[in-house]
TrEMBL record:
InterPro entries: Aldolase_TIM, FAD-bd, FAD/NAD-bd_sf, OxRdtase_FMN_N, YqjM-like
Gene3D superfamilies: 3.30.9.20, Aldolase class I, FAD/NAD(P)-binding domain
The protein's name: Bifunctional salicylyl-CoA 5-hydroxylase/oxidoreductase
Listed CDD domains: OYE_YqiM_FMN
Location of the FAD-binding domain: 86-328
One Pfam family of this chain: FAD_binding_3
Top-level taxon of origin: Bacteria
Domain NADH:flavin oxidoreductase/NADH oxidase N-terminal: 396-732
Length: 793
């Protein structure tokens, strides 16, 4: 093949070296507009997984990198005048300049043509004369920009300012310096990369940056490659304690806003993007260099394995996209955590450290316990001590008091519509469904959305509480839960609004009924989506009648014996649609600004709260974001939560979306928990109200991690309980917990231990005469370049 590579960074050079080794006959040219020594930045960090791939692909480069690595396992977090160390992580870093020189030398050895200080020819010309053109020209890619109509990039410019610097203070481990100043919180990400230097990245929210006067040079016309010397001098002054008498160095150092780059496509004909040209991930979870070199590995392998370029490029994108998108989700969580770091500075130091370490949701409690058991013990004890609880139990099995209601543990079975009622009456199916979940160990089991009127149903199969027959059937279910389990049972009340009169989920979710329709209503005559019924706009009289329906249903729910009531103000149903500017375009007192959109939901809440027994809690489920432009955002969710708490809500159950079919959710593991986290820290913590996290929480490790980090007080788990009705009890068995937070029904007591696994007669090694270096097994390994690395006692 004849290959043109635009960009002489690590990704482009590594790809060139790999392809030349796969076939020396490849004609490969790399264009780089900078000189070979024009290296911007300081150190780069690699994971063990990436290094394994590099070692398999090119042992020469791998050996060269290994000779230059700084290695360590510790993270030091400096916060409120204290330093906390967490071990067992595993890092390898080297100087960016050394890496580039190593890759340049390797390319020269292999016969790759390198053209430095030379802008690449037009991509159209290159595509016509080369078999493959690789855009490896970084975050500001000219290749991507020239073909934007094909790649369809999105560039998300973030809210914090950061600056790459270096220092001659050689850190022994990864450093997080969290500095509380009179202007706000600033942080430093620091790590060693050689025997003589460390990377020193200063970051802060733009508001803090302005208050601190760093904007004095905003808009200054700096020459290419020049640094913002005013800012560098100010950093030296502000971080003198952290530098500890050492120097800070600049190299094209200026304030930047991180830009998350995503592309709908990564290749077009014989043109392909790799590295930052295709995607970026925030520096707080690793290195863009790491991702670029992984791209290069995958692209070279796919070209080697497929007979044609189109098939190879499709395979490359298919292989790498899920990995990159997962990394970007983690990076998004991490960068948003640092953008909002001011929310967490009230936390007790151990919890703050755990929160920081688990910010991206990639590292969890179980990960940390495996890597550093002593730190995990401290996290457990700090969590228990802060709440006056027993420190022996996992966090999920610690009790919780919701108003006057005592819960045995912090696991909730989420409301899940079953669409299996007849005329709104729950039957044997609901008894078995909810009864099995209650006997499965959860602290609280929630009903599906119980509708307040026949017209308020989603489907003909929805349950209701608009008559006494329904109340009595619910009473049977509630009694079973109370008699046969330690769980409490909650009632979720709602009205379908514009999403009503639709088929059963398995017959066509959200599709209108083909016959026997009923009229749907909403705040405005706007359908939920294409093909949905157009709702009639509610009058004041309609709103009064619906509020009365909610009150009557609440009274019946209290008579049925429910322990808790949740008002459903999420997922685009009636009260949710009043809250959302996507569904509510009213021009009266119930539309327009958020305060007006809140008016009717708050009226319903107040009426329900008054009708519901005072000693039993009332909570509210909200959609924290509409996932569409011009819809509600997490900032609106904070104000919505604040309003309901001010009116007496005991908890906010934080879901998201389902307000419009046009939504574009950012699905992923625990993807909704950042919204709960924000509400808890900005509103609920100061008021005593609880926050419930929900949304793709799939493991007990996730639950424990969220609770220990202080992102939520309770966790609602839905689909996982459908997969395993005894999930909570099984989680206790997996964690070897036996206590009041997970009481097995006496009839099932024999199953309260994890079944034995398969046995084997293989003889296990008894002695190891050739023992590994103890330093390699240490939890705490520091970078000490003046001598062999040694474990910290």
């Amino acid at each position: 093949m004849k290959i043109a590579i635009i960009g002489g960074g690590p990704g482009g050079l590594y790809f060139a070296a790999l392809m030349k080794q796969l076939d020396p006959a490849h004609d490969i040219t790399v264009w780089e507009r900078n000189a070979p020594d024009d290296t911007f930045g300081f150190g780069v960090v690699f994971s063990d997984e990436t290094l394994g791939g590099i070692e398999n692909a090119d042992t020469t480069i791998a050996r060269g990198m290994a000779r230059r690595f700084a290695r360590w396992t510790d993270i030091d977090i400096h916060y409120r005048g204290e330093s906390h160390t967490v071990g067992g992580q595993g890092f390898a870093a080297m100087g960016r300049k050394e890496l580039l020189h190593l890759l340049q030398e390797r390319c020269h050895e292999l016969g790759v043509t390198l053209r430095f200080s030379t802008p690449a020819p037009d991509t159209g010309r290159l595509r016509a004369s080369y078999d493959l053109v690789v855009g490896a020209d970084g975050v500001n890619s000219l290749v991507r920009a020239a073909h934007a109509e094909v790649f369809r990039p999105s560039l998300d410019r973030r809210h914090s300012k950061y600056m790459w610097l270096g220092t001659d203070r050689v850190f022994e481990a990864f450093q997080f310096f969290v500095k509380q100043t009179e202007w706000g919180v600033m942080q430093v990400h620091g790590y060693p990369y050689s025997a003589t230097g460390s990377t020193f990245i200063v970051e802060m929210h733009e508001d803090v940056w302005r208050r601190a006067g760093f904007d004095a040079t905003e808009g200054a016309d700096l020459a290419p490659g020049a640094s913002d010397e005013h800012a560098v001098a100010r950093v030296r002054e502000l971080f003198a304690d952290e530098l500890d008498g050492h120097q800070v160095f600049a190299n094209n150092s200026k304030w930047l806003n991180f830009t998350t780059v995503r592309n709908e496509r990564w290749h077009h004909g014989n043109l392909v993007l790799i590295g930052d040209a295709a995607h970026t991930a925030h520096f707080s979870i690793g290195s863009g260099t790491k991702l670029a070199m992984e791209d290069a590995l995958a692209l070279a392998a796919c070209l080697h394995e497929h007979p044609d370029a189109e098939g190879a490029l499709t395979a490359y994108e298919t292989e790498r996209r899920p990995v990159v998108e997962s990394t970007q989700r983690a990076a998004q969580g991490s960068l948003e955590w640092f953008e909002n770091i001011g929310m967490y500075v009230h936390q007790e130091p151990t919890q703050f450290c755990f929160n920081l370490l688990t910010r991206s949701r990639r590292i969890t409690y179980d990960n940390l316990r495996t890597r550093d058991p002593e730190f995990a013990d401290r996290v457990d004890m700090a969590f228990a001590a802060a709440q006056g609880l027993d420190g022996v139990a996992p966090a999920m099995f610690q009790p919780y008091r919701l108003g006057e209601l005592e819960l045995r543990n912090r696991v909730i079975v989420s409301p899940m519509d079953m669409y299996s009622a007849v005329d709104g009456v729950p039957g044997d199916f609901h008894l078995v469904h909810l009864g099995s979940k209650a006997m499965g160990g959860a602290g609280l089991v929630m009903t599906e959305m119980v509708c307040v009127s026949p017209e308020g149903r989603i489907t003909p199969g929805c349950t209701g509480l608009w008559n006494d027959e329904q109340r009595d059937s619910w009473r049977r279910i509630v009694s079973f839960v109370h008699q046969r389990s330690t769980a409490r049972i909650g009632l979720q009340l709602g009205h379908s609004g514009r999403k009503g009169s639709t088929r059963l989920m398995w017959e066509g979710m959200d599709d209108p009924l083909p016959r026997d329709n009923w009229e749907v209503v909403g705040p405005s005559p706007l359908p939920y989506g294409p093909g949905s019924a157009v709702p009639r706009e509610l009058t004041r009289a309609d709103m009064d009648r619906i509020a009365e329906d909610f009150v009557a249903a609440a009274r019946r729910g209290a008579e049925a014996g429910f322990d808790l009531l949740e008002l459903h103000c999420a997922h685009g149903y009636l009260l949710s649609s009043f809250l959302s500017p996507i569904a509510n375009r009213r021009t009266d007192a119930y539309g327009g600004p958020l305060a007006n959109r809140l008016r009717f939901p708050l009226e319903v809440f107040d009426a329900v709260r008054e009708a519901w027994p005072a000693e039993r809690p009332v909570i509210v489920r909200i959609s924290a974001t509409d996932w569409v432009p011009d819809g509600n955002t997490e900032h609106d969710a904070v104000e919505i939560a604040r309003a309901f708490i001010a009116h007496g809500a005991d908890a906010i159950d934080v879901s998201s979306g389902q307000v419009t079919k046009d939504e574009r959710p950012a699905f992923g593991r625990s993807y909704q928990t950042p919204f709960a986290d924000r509400i808890r820290h900005e509103v609920a913590a100061a008021t005593g109200a609880a926050v419930i996290a929900v949304g793709a929480i799939a493991s007990y490790d996730d639950v424990n991690s969220l609770l220990l980090a202080g992102r939520a007080d309770l966790c609602a788990v839905g689909r996982t309980h459908l997969y395993d009705p005894h999930w909570t009890l099984h989680a206790a068995a997996e964690q070897e917990y036996r206590g009041p937070g997970a009481a097995w029904p006496v009839q099932f007591g024999a199953g309260g231990r994890k079944p034995p696994a398969a046995r084997t007669d293989a003889i296990r090694p008894r002695l190891s005469l050739l023992r590994p270096d103890p330093a390699d097994q240490a939890v705490h390994l520091r970078w000490t370049p003046t001598r062999a690395p040694a474990p910290v006692p």
